[in-house]
Amino acid sequence: MEFNHKSVMLFECIDALNIKKDGIYVDGTAGGAGHSTEIAKRLGENGRLFSFDKDPDAVKICTERLSPYPWAQVIHSDFADMENQLKMRGVDKVDGILLDLGVSSYQLDTADRGFSYQHDAKLDMRMSKTGTSAYDIVNSYSQNEISRILREFGEEKFSSRIAANIIKERERKPIETTFELAEIIKNAIPAAARREGGNPAKRSFQAIRIAVNSELDSLSRCLDNALDLLNDKGRFAIITFHSLEDRMVKQKFAQWAKGCICPPEFPVCVCNNKPKVKLVNRKPIEAAKEELEENRRSRSAKLRVAERIYNED
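RESULT FIELD:
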């Protein structure tokens, strides 16, 4: 199996994790093991790495590529279940967590996975290869639900028109392929808007993919649970690729970093609210010019990093 995937901001992520040789680290989105391999290289025999992925193809290749590092273990699971999976393996605390969100280059470039409007294939988009597929959503969800998915997850302003066109076309025959869906989307968007740049199907395909894989729900669940897994000074590094993810991460990090929330007119603090993290980078880190030229996927990437703080009572 050829699993080609360029890890975005590879060494920026490694620097952000501030890796200790005997530390315990989690790569929540192992993919082709790019980030995982660089983490594993920096650990000694007393260190541990747990690499998660829900894509069985990724799990297979990651297991092969991490085989030289006995301290690395690959787990076939959504990172949203990280806390339970680690506890099953006797791990309560870790020194760093990395998430590289979104779809991998391999998934986009492998036509029969049905992720991309650039390859004609049966609609699928399932990272785990199980459960509800893009085909199911497009051919069985209501017009209102499809419109909501396109609007909320793709920020598509023509969501209602596209959803109506999908319903109209599927009444004639099921919508089976990526090219069929892309053409239906294009025909629903006004010609003037289609000329604004980029493929007119991009936002809708993103939205359907997010819905198929429950991506925002998984991120939310992980953010709710992962903070308490971190040791003091443990790092949480997250790469996002679109505004919905980035907004969620930015707001959660800001919430954790906030101290006293008492009204300014209070003479002393009564809320006893203390920061849980410090922000390692106030503004997101973006890919360097050289990487932008080599890897188009890095153009929209933003890396945010927070460090755990434990305040003594």
